[in-house]
Design a protein that fits this description.
single chain, mainly alpha, MetI-like fold, 0% strand, transmembrane, MetI-like
C-alpha cells in the first residue's frame, strides 16, 4: 500500500496514457467499420471476403504488428501512433462482421416501409437501420473495448508507456505489488469503458429501455 500511495501520480499518468491508446482506436475502428459493414450487408458477394479478410487481420500477433508499424508508417518505434493504428485495425477486424450482422438483424419490413416512404439509401441507413442496429453494434464495441485495454499493455514490451509498464517493471524487479496494481488498474479501466458504452447505448436507444422496463 505504501508503494501505491507514493506512486499515485505515476499510476494516474500511465492510466491516462492507457485509456487514450485504447479509446482512440475504438472510435476510429468503429467509424471505419460502419461503411464497410453496410457494404458487406448491402452487397452479399462482399460479405464473405470482407468478413474473412477482417478475421485474418485479427490473427496477426499484436507484438509483431506493433513492431511492423514503424516500418510501414515511417514513425519512431516509441511513437504512440504505432499502437493507435494497430489497434484501429484490430477494432476494425472485430467490428466489420458485427456491423454487417447487426444491420442484417433489422426487420425487413422496417426497411421496406422506409423505402416506400421515399427515403433514400443513405438517409435510411442513418435514420432507420443504424439506430435499430445500435444495441447489437454496442455489444461488439464492448468486446472490442475490453480487447483494446488488454492489447495495449503488450506495447510496454516496445517501450510505450502505459499500465503495461507496471507489468514489465514489476516482473524485472520481482515486485508483485506493482504487477497487482497494474492488473487491478487494467480491470478497472476495462469496466469503466464497458460502463460508458452501456450508458451511451441506453441514451441513444431509449425505446429499448422503455420496452424492457
Amino acid at each position: 500500500m505504501s508503494w501505491f500511495l507514493s506512486h499515485t501520480d505515476q499510476i494516474w499518468g500511465l492510466l491516462g496514457h492507457h485509456a487514450g491508446l485504447a479509446a482512440l482506436p475504438l472510435l476510429i475502428g468503429v467509424v471505419a467499420a460502419l461503411p464497410l459493414g453496410w457494404l458487406a450487408r448491402r452487397h452479399r458477394a462482399l460479405y464473405t471476403p470482407m468478413v474473412a479478410g477482417a478475421g485474418l487481420l485479427f490473427t496477426i500477433p499484436s507484438l509483431a504488428l506493433f513492431i511492423l508499424m514503424p516500418l510501414i508508417l515511417g514513425t519512431g518505434i516509441l511513437d504512440p501512433a504505432n499502437v493507435v493504428v494497430a489497434l484501429s485495425l484490430y477494432t476494425l477486424a472485430l467490428m466489420v462482421r458485427t456491423v454487417a450482422d447487426a444491420l442484417g438483424s433489422v426487420p425487413p419490413g422496417v426497411s421496406s416501409a422506409a423505402l416506400a416512404m421515399g427515403i433514400g439509401p443513405l438517409r435510411r441507413f442513418l435514420t432507420v437501420e443504424l439506430p435499430l442496429a445500435t444495441p447489437a453494434i454496442a455489444a461488439g464495441m464492448r468486446v472490442a473495448a475490453v480487447s483494446n485495454v488488454s492489447i495495449v499493455s503488450v506495447a510496454a514490451l516496445i517501450g510505450v508507456p502505459q499500465l503495461g509498464s507496471l507489468f514489465t517493471d514489476g516482473f524485472n524487479r520481482s515486485f508483485v505489488t506493482e504487477i497487482a496494481v497494474g492488473l487491478v488498474a487494467c480491470i478497472a479501466l476495462a469496466l469503466a469503458f464497458d460502463a460508458v458504452i452501456v450508458a451511451a447505448t441506453r441514451l441513444a436507444t431509449p425505446w429499448t429501455h422503455r420496452r424492457t422496463s
